Amino acid sequence: MIQTSIKGKQKRPFKVRDIFRSWLFVLILAAFLFTFALTYFTQHKQVEFQTNKKLVGELSYFTEQIEDFDQRREKLRQASDEVLLSKAKLMALAIGHDATLLSDNWTMRTLLDVLDLDAVYITDSTGMIRFSIPHEYEGRFNFSDYKTTSPYMALITRTLSSIVEDPRPNDADAATGVIRYQQYAGVPREDEPGIVQVAYSNAQYDSAIAAISLENCATGYTVGTNGFLVLLNQNKPISATTAELLASPPEYNASAVDKGSFSILYDGARYMARACSSGSMTVLAAIPYSEMYEDIWKVLLWITAFYGITFLSVFLQVSRLLDRVVINNIQKTNKSLKRITSGDLNERISVTDNQEFQELSGGINATVDALKHFIAQAEDRIRAELALAHAIQSSALPSVFPPFPERREFDLHASMKPAKEVGGDFYDFFLIDEDHLALVIADVSGKGIPAALFMMKSKTLIKELAESGLSPAEVMRQANRKLCEGNDAEMFVTAWLGLFTISEGRMVCSNAGHEYPAIDRAGKGWELLHDRHGLVLAAMEQARYTEYELTFAPGDRLFVYTDGVPEATNAQSQLYGTERMLAALEKAHGMNVEDTLRTLHEDINSFVGDAPQFDDITMLIVSLPQKATPSPDTRREQAFVPDEAATEQALAFVRTSFGEMGASRKCLARFGVTMDELFSNIVYYSGATQVTVLCEKKGLDWILTLRDNGTPFDPFTAPVPDVALDVSERPIGGLGLHIVKKTMKSVLYEYKGGENVLTVTYQDEATP
Fold first, then answer.
1. Side-chain half-sphere of 76: how many Cα atoms within 13 Å?
2. Distance (Å, whole) CA 577 – CA 518
3. Is the backbone peptide bond immediately before 134 cis, with ω within 30 degrees of 0?
4. CA 266, 271, 273, 279 torsion: positive or negative?
5. Which of 38, 169, 320, 439 has its CA 20 to 30 A from that of 3?
6. Of 277 and 214, which is predicted with more confidence?
């Protein structure tokens, strides 16, 4: 760019490309204007020459037409005879095709109109007219009685094939004293012996003759688009392009006839004209100057477009050369620099069209490489620090389960899946004394290191206050007050705290703006507990908090979580929601606390899919207190209709029954596989309409009995599959039953009372 200054004041810099293009534009515009003026002068002369030539051609053509007038008039008469005869033949053909037309007056009149005829006469074999239009001749006129029509009788005997007359006076009109002429033509009838005669009126015939009369020869004749022609006889107009010209012809100098072109003024417009003589007549032809010069502007428009395109092409080509050599390389360099300054350090500047830009590219790339090296070192340090922070945060959360193996009154499990290396969620549980268990779950606003630091501070503070013997509401109040101190970052934390008295099965809780807990009363189904919320911690120092009490019975469960669970989002921006959460908890019915959380995590992952995780997912579940010890001998029985839908229902019944009897996770897992295999065989192969499932516990033995009314069949008589074979070589079937026999204590089958009875026994470890 070029900069100029006047008296110390800096002006806006000019771009090299702008200066170059400005001068190029001026030069090409000057060349264009000169070419335009030269072309205008040349085209003006060319148009006058072409117009004069056109006038000569029009006059020559028109005078030839006048000289051929008599010959064309005779040809027209012949053509008229041929047309009239052809229409007579068409009428004969129509009657021959459908003789009923002679009784259909409307159709015959329509046919006359279509053929443009004035009259039609149809005779029988005697020459008597039996049908005619007009009708007054029917039954009254016989062709053989009159001199003008008797020659037509030869058509009946087909001595003649057709007759065409010259126009003759109409007898009916002669009586009135008005002489009218008609032209007649006749042909034989096609359907029977007789005559078909048709007639033109004198008006129809005369209109055809008038078309070639001298008085009409110039009517409508134009020269060019808007020019005209006038035929004069001894300077009197006898025919012209328009009636106005005939009534008021243009004035011209008679001495200019046959001597070249001249100008005339007519109706306010100027015309170029020529005149020539033809015998005693004169022909005048003229074209308006406005029409002549219209073509010039069309040509000039095309020339303007041509030179405009030429100018643009030259301008673009020269500009392209400048852009390619200098401007584009500068823009490429600037574009890469913008990407680099935006954070893309993998961008490489590769402008090598000339030595100057090649050296510039190399210098910038070397600088970026050095910067990348320093950034990589810094990232390694940050990554190591984040890993250390993650390890510290993970170690601060209880991670050994079961956490209190010596305590059998309750069971609990918890998990946290941070959205980043470190998160803002946390959970905690600790025994304040032998009879009091504290449960905490919280969610700090924000993500990353700041949230993790605030989380550690909040966790430590809540634990210290809870261990000091304060009530849950007081713990929240004092924690809120302390967290408000020095909270310049204006962070806050939602928290839920429960203090459980183990011996009484009673829990006192307080909620500081956290999610609603979910509770399952003795396996009756999960539901949200809409407890009363207080303000989030660290939002307002004077905030007050309330508490509420829960009483637990054998089999009750409590589930608390952070908002990362219901707000988990899939690729379609749909939220997981509390309804899906409760449904997943129901799906885990009969599972222990660890498997319940695992099932819920799997359901969330299946819903989210490949969508990124935006928030920490933290969950804690507690069974308070542990289910009562089952009686030594317990029995549960239920009947099912064996179909696909009943398979899941029967499996849930077995898990629930054995789970409530106190079966171990291993025992439930074994019976899950066994039940799925055996019940599926009954559904698909037995043909049974009812199956009864019986679950029993006798001492250390867990017994599952299936009774169905299907076809007698012992499934364990099938050959043992060869498990050493490759999967692709092994026959389908038998493997599931083989696994059942291997994993169970005993498998017995009998057909008894019209039912298949299959009994499977599993011996579990001693149940505490």
1. 15
2. 13
3. yes
4. negative
5. 320
6. 277
Q: What are phi and psi of 762, to 5 degrees?
A: -125, 135
Strands (E), 75-160: 119-123, 129-133
d(CA 257, CA 273): 10
* pLDDT value at residue 461: 94
Q: What is the DSSP string of 528-541?
A: E--PPPBPPBTS-T
User: What counts of helices (H) and strands (E) characterise the chain?
Assistant: 16, 28
* Residue whose tokens read 């897992």: 669
What is the per-residue pLDDT across 510-557, written as a single tens digit (0 to 9) for each? 999 999 999 998 778 899 999 999 999 999 999 999 999 999 888 899
Question: Backbone phi, then psi, for 87, in 5-degree steps?
Answer: -70, -35
Average pLDDT of 3-31?
66
Say if CB 318 and CB 16 are below 8 A apart.
no
pLDDT beyond 70 at 720 = no
Q: Quote the pTM value.
A: 0.41
**The token pair that represents 28 in the structure block:** 């090409």
The conformational region for residue 171 under phi > 0 = left, psi -120 to 50 = alpha, else beta, is: alpha
The encoded tokens of residue 176 equal 């009135």
Upstream peptide bond of 151 is cis (omega within 30 degrees of 0): no
Using pLDDT thresholds of 50, 70 and 90, give the confidence band for residue 76.
low
How far apart, in Å, are the Cα atoms of 45 and each of 226, 289, 438, 570? 21, 13, 111, 80
Give the Cα separation of 628 and 541 in Å (integer).
Answer: 45
Q: Are 760 and 746 in contact (CB under 8 A)?
A: yes
Q: Which amino acid is at 349?
A: I
Instruction: Report how far Cα 480 is from the mean position of its chain's Cα atoms.
Output: 53
Encoded amino acid at 101, one letter: L
3-class state of residue 223 by DSSP: coil
> Smallest Cα–Cα separation from 617: which of 634, 604, 632, 633?
604
The torsion region of residue 765 among left (phi > 0), alpha (psi -120 to 50) and beta comes to beta
Q: How far apart are CA 335 and CA 341, in angstroms?
A: 10
